[in-house]
Amino acid sequence: MFTRIYAQIAGDYVNLAATIIGLLAIVAGAAYILSNPRLFLLGLKNLRRNLLRTTLTSAAIGVLAFVITMIWTIIYFIDLIQVERSKDFKIIVTYKWSVPSQIPMTHADYLNPSSPKFLPELVDANGKKLYGPNDFMTWSFYGGTTDPNKVAPDTLVFFFVMHPEQIIPMMDDLGDLDPKLVKAMQENPQACLLGADKLKSLNKRVGDRFKLTSVNYKGIDLEFEIVGALPDGRYNASAIMRMDYFNNAFDLYKRNNNREHTLAHKRLNLIWIRVGDRDMFDKIGGIVEESPQFAPFLVKVETASSLIGSFLEAYRMIIWAMKWVLVPGMLLIMSLVMANAISITVRERRSEMAVMKVLGYSPNQVFLLILGEAIFVGAIAGLLAAGATYAFFNLKWGGIPFRIGFFPVFRIPEAALMWGLAIGTITAFVGSALPAWTARSVKVSEVFSKVA
């Protein structure tokens, strides 16, 4: 867990900035309490004395931290999946001239290290293959409905069609999948794995059987047995079925209809190859794109991050607006709300400030008192709101259930706790700095002359 948190902080400038701000707030707060314990206790009494205002201010900051944590989780995840990671650098091979990609199944044989048709160009001078079986995966997409008279979200199922042995080594976030589920799929041609949300929408349980009428391969209607559930999180609305069962269905269609299915030679969608680094990507990519074996159906190669980036292009302006308009705007508005609330408090407490100065408190101590009260409320409210958001969504749904394409859920990272702390600290500081300076500048003579 600590390794994951470190990676989140070190690999993202927002997480790093939020952590620095949060740590500065903690260190500064500890120094303030230790050097001015009486002033800190006085601030707590003042917050309790204006309990309603303190509660409303805390709630406002909490709501702000809650909303920004949800928004920034989606932005953070999308940014993350578009970053090329050297430890998991994947090539995606697709058809060059159309979207969605549709290529012959034979293309996979030329790139499968376990196939006798494996391209000799992908073997080095020492006879070693440039990648192994655990670095190769194929995908087809099969969709169907349990009710052909009602094609709706609660009847539709879309499958990742693949070989079961490729799930654990190649599927993102499924490296910890129970091997027993893979074995159960290998033992049953009709076996499938369904996500928790899909099981619920179909009203099915592990062990149940169901039949689908295909929506993207007309005439290829299949029957399935649910042998297990996919882990909560990214695949809650997804499903996985066997590639050989899918392929055999086309052979059966040919026997029954005395002709091949119109998509029989275009039923493979993606080929994935994991490589070690960019140099290996360029080497393998060049070989694949120039191979004459792919001449009838030309292919292109790109990184997983590039493909996802192309898919998310439709959301580009929305994501940009969320990142650079919505979030900063919310922070600015909350800072103004804080400034207004604390300004009212300062005006109400002008006599108190004057009395404090008469009793020997310096202008700087008055400034620190107001600033400390605001930052204490903001930091605590932001931290608690982010913590509650993290716990609620991650424990209940495995993340924020906001579907974009194949991403049905966005897990809130552990670094979000620092987001909340930083949000509360920044808004409180910006909103209270001017009112606190006004309190510092209160003149004793003016206050008591008005009283008199």
Topology:
Elements: H1 2-10, H2 13-35, H3 37-49, H4 51-81, E1 89-95, H5 106-111, E2 136-145, E3 156-162, H6 167-170, H7 179-187, E4 191-194, H8 196-202, E5 209-214, E6 222-229, E7 239-242, H9 243-257, E8 270-275, H10 278-290, E9 299-303, H11 304-311, H12 316-348, H13 350-358, H14 363-397, H15 416-440, H16 444-451
Parallel strand pairs: 3-7, 4-6
Antiparallel strand pairs: 1-8, 1-9, 2-3, 2-5, 2-8, 4-7, 5-6
Name its key features.
elongated, six-stranded mixed barrel, 2 domains, 55% helix, 452 residues, single chain, alpha+beta
Structure description:
This protein has 452 residues and is an alpha+beta fold. It has 2 domains: 219 residues, no CATH class; 200 residues, no CATH class. Helix content is 55%, strand content 13%. It has 16 helices and 9 strands. A 6-stranded mixed β-barrel has the order 2-3-7-4-6-5. Strand 5 and strand 6 form a beta hairpin. Helix 3 crosses helix 14, helix 4 runs antiparallel to helix 12 and helix 4 packs across helix 15. The longest helix has 35 residues. The termini are far apart. The model has no long low-confidence stretch (mean pLDDT 89).
Kindly summarize this structure in a few lines.
Helices cover 55% and strands 13% of the residues. With 452 residues, it is of the alpha+beta class. Helix 4 crosses helix 14.
